[in-house]
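Protocol step 4 of 6: structure prediction from sequence.
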Amino acid sequence: QVQLVESGGGLVQAGGSLKLSCKQSGIAFSTLSMAWFRQVPGREREFVAGSSKTIGTTYIADSVKGRFTVSRDNAKNTVDLQMNNLTPEDTARYYCAAREGYLAVSNQYDYWGQGTQVTVSS
């Protein structure tokens, strides 16, 4: 059974940075495409960034392009989301997700973490 555990959330001032990390266990990490989503109460879950199971293939949502980067470490079974120049609009609960297929920007993921809260103050 796949488990995803996020860490690194917290409170930060606008313009600051945070790094989220997701640790995966359960099956071979290299078979999974990994993604980060975020959700604000009352709104749909939004794709933020992802890393395909094909090494080197990443995708960043337009809303965060130029500020966020995603990276994976197949040796450590982790996928990180580096968030720079944060704004209050980035405040959300951030979720790690995994699927046994190619990277997708929809919610069609097989496994989800519990999420970690990111709050950006103005």
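Step 5 (inspection) to follow. The CA atoms of residues 37 and 48 lie 5 Å apart.
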